[in-house]
Write the structure tokens for this entry.
Amino acid sequence: MTAYPDIKMLIGGEWVAQGGEGTMPVVNPATEEAFASCPKASKEQLDAGLAAADQAFAGWAATPGAERHRIIRRAAELLRERSERIARVITLEMGKPHAQAIGETQNAADLIDFLGEEAKRQGGRLVPVRGPNLLQQRVTNEPIGPAALFTPWNFPINLPAKKLAGALAAGCSCLLKPAETTPASAQLLVECFVDAGVPSGAINLVFGDPAMISEHLITAPAIRKVSFTGSTAVGRSLGALAAQGLKRFTAELGGHAPVVIGESADFDRTVAACAATKFRNAGQVCVSPTRFLVARGIYDRFVSEFAARADSLKVGDASADDSVAMGPLAHPGRVAAMEDLVGSLGGEKGEVVTGGAAIEGVGNFFQPTIVAGPSADSRLMTEEPFGPIAGIVPYDDIEDAVRIANSLRYGLAAYAFTGSLDESHYLGSALKAGMVAINHFAVGSPETPFGGIGDSGFGSESGVEGYLGYTQTKLVTVAKSAP
């Protein structure tokens, strides 16, 4: 087994092994083995973290941007140096295949690099004056204050990295509450920032009861910014809490991404990309392609080839076998949710072409599943599965495909594959989502904003937006001292 660290929280610069509310088990989802324990923070420990972040804010905000950049960039270098060990811990905690875990860690380092650079790039702007009595108008972006950061388990390094790097680059102190199921991944990431020189109190790490911690932190007077990645239902609740204190809130919530596939698309390349991306992380990805809308002329062939590729995937315990292509679901509840979703199909609701059942034996495994012709009102076409299930629907004209794609309130990511330049321009404009990718699935680069619309949330992280989201705008206008 991969060397697994003793789980500790970071409060005011001190690593704390004892949780005021006891401990909770850490379970390998591939073996269902509880192999470690994680401390649960008490309200008193949360208050200590809040006080530390509040006290550290002024000093960190006053640190020159070039110095913040130097420290943050060193954290990225340490993450790269430690990527092999961290990737093994990711796989152990949440089942992600090793190659995907390595990719996540390296991408997170790139994100940290980019956002750290923003600390020395963002200097504000001058606005031309309108009259002879005005000397200057300047606009600056100042750090907003201590930030509370909440992240889920499916990308236990990438998601905390973009929040931490954005907040720290802007000059904000922060408290990170990651998923309780992947504590060591977050701890190892935070260690990179601490070892790089982030000062005491500027970064704090706590684990424990999600409902208690989120309410306690968000309603605390010290917190001025909240960033949350997770479900739409929880996002609504946390947004309401943040609104009570008029606190800035960034929410990256659920998705149900459509993929429009035109008859002119490069068929072999398209189906290969769709199969590889759909089953990445066992479909437990907020931007996972889920509703495949395929031109009728290639529909039958696409269903057949997609199903064959799904059947060929090696599913298993990635912590024991690096050749595994798809690991387990996060916990037994996710398996039950997949079974329930498949059980709602049949007849006009959709035909299961391959898969459709839990894999017998130890672990939270579910077969890669392809459903042909799910109806518009089926649960598969209206609810985010967040698992290894894909629905494929034929369309006769591109406007009909767009109508289906835009029929839900979700709007995180949307994709299209086409060989037509006209069609690509039309789809780029017509698809309603925060991120649209044509002829590929890469919507998460360090330089570009990541965020959705509608029930998928609002605000963006990564890109310059990932820095500016932790700032507030100030205008300073200067007139002559005498007429």
Notes: The longest strand covers residues 134-143. The chain has two domains: 9-253+456-475, 257-446. The mean pLDDT is 96.
